[in-house]
Amino acid sequence: MTVRFTTSPDGTGIAFEQLGDGPPVVVTGGALSTRYEGLPLARELAGLGLSGVVYDRRGRGGSGDTPPYAPAREDEDLAAVLGAVGGGAACAFGVSSGALIALGAAARTGAAPGRLVLFEPPFTGAVGHPQDPAHAARLADFLDRKRRADAVAYFLGEIIGLPPESVAGVRRSPAWGGLTRIAHTLRYDTTLLGDATLPAGILTAVRVPVLVLSSDASTRLLQDAARAVAEALPCGEHRTVPGAFHQAPAEALAPVVRDFLAA
């Protein structure tokens, strides 16, 4: 694939890649991800006759990062990529906090996707577990003091909920350096999520069909949150797919996306 660029309305350059030549599906990653994490899904989609599009959210990889940050800027970034690859004919696939961006782009921009697929949008406040504002404050403190590794570890352990041994394993992995390089973008994800309650105004403004997915191995909290999002959308439905905690393999996701787009 060849890296291409599009420009968001605030002048930020957004790097993206496209694999395949069928109807485009633009993948928006979650916290601490770059476009490379979306490549397995893009390849699977291309193999099913679709076109998988992955991009770097602002502040990550090959994309720029124009201050000040606001969630609406990320909506515009996604809309710019959608416009570059097919506009209203494209589908947006949002993962975790990336699902919040997909919803925002559909509700608030002129380049809304034709359909949405959301994987575990983390609106846990919808099922009685709002996000503690102390988490965002603690992350900001780590980042203000240039303690990027501590910020990543705090996010994985205290916010995502990984056990200490899993966090320690990530610290020892080859991926750790890449995670700490984009640690500053954790501010963006906590800003996007807020207190994790459902954004009723945004959800009711999304008029396109939406498929909300959850993994059968995720916590009951995340699965219930996914169902709550589907129920709150005017044209939403929920399905469970085989996977692991807060993730599912590309080979399980791609056929579900294909079938949803063909319906």
From TrEMBL:
Q: What InterPro entries does the record point to?
A: AB_hydrolase, AB_hydrolase_1, AB_hydrolase_fold
Protein species of origin: Streptomyces qinglanensis
Name the source's superkingdom: Bacteria
- GO MF term list: catalytic activity
Protein's recorded name: AB hydrolase-1 domain-containing protein
Q: What is the lineage of its organism?
A: Bacteria, Bacillati, Actinomycetota, Actinomycetes, Kitasatosporales
Annotated AB hydrolase-1 domain ranges read 41-249
A Pfam cross-reference name: Abhydrolase_6
